[in-house]
Design brief:
- The complex is a heterodimer.
- By secondary structure, chain A is of the alpha/beta class.
- Chain A folds into 2 domains: 21-77 and 182-251 and 343-400, FAD/NAD(P)-binding domain, CATH 3.50.50.60; 114-176 and 253-341, 2-Layer Sandwich (D-Amino Acid Oxidase, Chain A, domain 2).
- Helix content of chain A is 29%, strand content 26%.
- Chain A has helices at residues 5-13, 41-54, 89-100, 102-106, 124-139, 149-155, 182-195, 239-245, 308-321, 366-383, 397-400, and strands spanning 31-37, 59-62, 78-79, 117-121, 145-148, 170-174, 178-179, 199-201, 206-212, 215-221, 226-233, 252-264, 272-275, 280-284, 289-300, 330-341, 347-350, 356-360.
- In chain A, strands 1, 2, 8, 9, 10, 11, 17 and 18 form an 8-stranded mixed β-sheet that branches. In chain A, strands 5-6-4-13-14-15-12-16 form an 8-stranded mixed β-sheet.
- Chain A is globular.
- In chain B, a hairpin with a 3-residue loop joins strand 1 and strand 2 (9-12).
- The longest helix of chain B has 10 residues, at 34-43.
- Chain B has a domain at 1-20 and 50-90: Folate-binding superfamily (Folate-binding fold), CATH 3.30.2270.10.
- The model of chain B has no long low-confidence stretch (mean pLDDT 94).
- Chain B is globular and about 45 Å long.
- Chain B is of the alpha+beta class.
- Chain B is 16% helix and 37% strand.
- In chain B, the strands form 2 sheets. A 4-stranded antiparallel β-sheet of chain B has the order 3-4-5-6. Chain B has a two-stranded antiparallel ribbon with strand order 1-2.
- The chains are: A alpha/beta, B alpha+beta.
- Chain A: InterPro entries: FAD-dep_OxRdtase, FAD/NAD-bd_sf, Rhodanese-like_dom, SoxB.
- Chain A: It comes from Ancylobacter rudongensis.
Chain lengths: 416, 90
């Protein structure tokens, strides 16, 4: 059923009895053209664009739990394309453009809200670095604006501008950035892919690969073997584990990232604000909770929960930026497992194993990339060549020296 | 998370800094396959879900390097020994 004002009206008048499930809970068939391992945002978007753009509809998405129960349901919902490096910026801008048309494309309300992101700077040197990034964005055709202190004050008068240690001097604004409802993105892609014939198979964990000679020709799962022409892995957080079943070691460590939401408030923060002197960012959900986070904990973890030192660090950053946060109570906090790649940038590439394709290494920035990640991974799977915006996300770049070190901190995954 | 430092006893994790996987060792730069070996050493990791050997530095304590055996699924620490005993970070 297509969602529309008329469908809402008709169901409202008939006791909401006409709604059908948004996607089929499919059982795995013996074989597909393409199997996508991982039913998160990236995997479902890949399936959708394979079916929509490339006409490849004999596709299954295999998810070990329920779709969207990993990092797609654990992020802080920010979408933006304010990157510096040429390997990254065109890709994230393509993602931003897909976000802008996503709801019409999927016929699903993903609550995309372009409320702007403001990166604050606190020193002359940091202003210069942000001016450089803003100029790089403009060279790539992306909106950016460097704001002085007065203009930031007009937007967010409650920030601690005269903080003794980290006074706010201004900020870099990307007005087209914003937030989206993370669960709705998953559901929207799932529904749209399902309508094009994609099988979404839940509670189906991949336990191994089926090989013929060198090549991978399918997967072993908890619901039996499934064969495929191509196997595409999009399981960020667990990429090393799945790639390990194929005998690959990846340039990735898994780390835990914590996020937080406060009790609900009346509208207070109408955009996304990031603190420049520590790692802290904050926005307000449409339910009213302040959603914020900071650094990863910094040690290898698959535990989906973190520890107190980083909670303290995040809260200190928040208090330095916005002292009124101190009167708030925390409603929830949680952890997700990040694929921390060795240069802080993702991988969308074929692997040395024939038949196996990899979408991984999203560090803590995977959510905003969801549409373009799916688009570019589908392009690679369908055409055999990387999409023009994702050509730099190669698996072998660590060997050839073509790293995309956006943060400039070298091969230390816990610093990216 | 609390780490049982062999010098200081059990101390809170915020006193420590993390280096990473303790199973990788710096290769011989004069070896014939040094380029490949350094690529593997710098970039590739086993990244196990489960038992993990790792280096921690007791920065706000005894300033000793420790080799810690920790389960990455639960954060439970099985052992922590001095790097002086077990071999220093490569």
């Amino acid at each position: 059923m297509r969602y529309s004002f008329l469908s809402i009206l008709a169901n409202g008048l008939s006791g909401q009895k006409g709604w059908a499930p948004a996607w089929r809970d499919a059982a795995p068939k013996p074989a597909y053209d393409v199997i996508i391992v991982g039913g998160g945002g990236h995997g479902l978007a890949t399936a959708y664009y394979l079916a929509k753009v490339h006409g490849i509809r004999n596709v299954a998405v295999l998810e070990k739990g329920v779709i969207g129960s990993g990092n797609a349901g654990r992020n802080t919902t920010i979408i933006r394309s304010n990157y510096l490096l040429p390997g990254n910026e065109p890709f994230y801008e393509w993602s931003m453009k897909l976000w802008e048309g996503l709801e019409q494309e999927l016929n699903y309300n993903a609550m995309v809200s372009q409320r702007g992101i403001l990166n604050l700077f606190h020193s002359d040197a940091q202003r210069d670095a942000y001016a450089r990034r803003g100029n790089a964005m403009r060279l790539a055709g992306v909106d950016s604006e460097l704001l002085d202190k007065a203009r930031v004050k007009a937007m967010y008068p409650f920030l601690d501008f005269d903080n003794a240690r980290f006074p706010i001097q201004g900020g870099l604004l990307q007005a087209r950035a914003g937030t989206a409802r993370h669960d709705a993105v998953v559901w929207g892609y799932a529904r749209a892919a399902d309508r094009l014939g994609v099988d979404i198979v839940q509670n189906c964990e991949v336990t191994g690969f089926i090989r013929e000679g060198d090549a991978i020709v399918g997967v072993e799962t908890t619901r039996g073997p499934v064969r495929a022409g191509k196997v595409a892995v999009a399981v960020a957080g667990s990429s090393s584990r799945v790639a390990g079943m194929a005998g690959l070691r990846l340039p990735i460590e898994s780390h835990v990232l914590q996020a937080f939401v406060s009790e609900g408030l009346k509208p207070l923060v109408d955009g996304v604000i990031t603190f420049g002197a520590g790692h802290f960012y904050i926005s307000q959900s449409d339910k009213g909770g302040l959603v914020f986070g900071g650094d990863i904990d910094g040690y290898n973890s698959y535990a989906q929960r973190g520890n107190l030192p980083v909670i303290e660090d995040v809260c200190e950053g928040g208090m330095a930026l916005m002292p009124r946060l101190g009167r708030l109570r925390l409603l929830r906090h949680w952890g997700g497992i990040m694929d921390m790649s060795m240069d802080g940038s993702p991988i969308i590439d074929r692997t040395p194993v024939p038949g196996l394709y990899l979408n991984a290494g999203w560090c803590y920035g995977g959510f905003k990339a969801t549409p373009a990640s799916g688009w570019c991974f589908a392009h690679l799977l369908a055409t055999g060549a990387p999409h023009e915006t994702a050509g730099a996300f190669r698996l072998d770049r660590f060997r050839t020296g073509h790293l995309i070190d956006e943060k400039g901190v070298g091969a230390q995954p816990n610093l990216h | 998370m609390r780490i049982p430092c062999p010098y200081c006893g059990e101390r809170d994790a915020h006193e420590f800094a993390y280096l990473g996987d303790a199973t990788v060792t710096r290769p011989d730069p004069a070896a014939a396959d040094a380029a490949q070996a350094f690529h593997d050493y710098v970039y590739l990791r086993d990244n196990p879900a489960g038992a993990h050997q790792e280096w921690w530095y007791h920065a706000n304590g005894c300033r000793q390097w420790l080799r810690v055996a920790r389960d990455t699924r639960t954060h439970a620490i099985a052992a922590a020994t001095s790097a002086r005993v077990s071999g220093e970070p490569a």
